Amino acid sequence: MAALLAEDQACLMGTARDYIHWDPNPCTRTVVEELLKTGAFEQLDCLFRQRIQFGTAGLRAAMGPGYKNINDLVILQTCQGLARYLEEHFVDAKTKVRNNDNCIVAIWFVHQ
Known about the structure:
The protein is mainly α. It has helices at 6-22, 26-38, 41-48, 72-89, 93-98, and strands at residues 54-55, 58-59.
């Protein structure tokens, strides 16, 4: 892999710092902190260049740090995105959930 340009490194450092700030899990956060501290830009690029995609089977990826893997932060952000989508497309979604009135969404976590 070719070395990253200085501006790409700066952007990557900002992305990694945001991840560290938002990640509630000390284990994945520490991995990213160490990679950032040692200037391991190729590894950071691999972790942050692309997000995992939601497919017909949901989110599937290896567990680990970064946006390309499954971790606490990716799950939190995915749930926030789903909630935002439901609020925008189903005007009464909040009311139905609060009243337990024919709730149309189920979210579960399978850790294998």
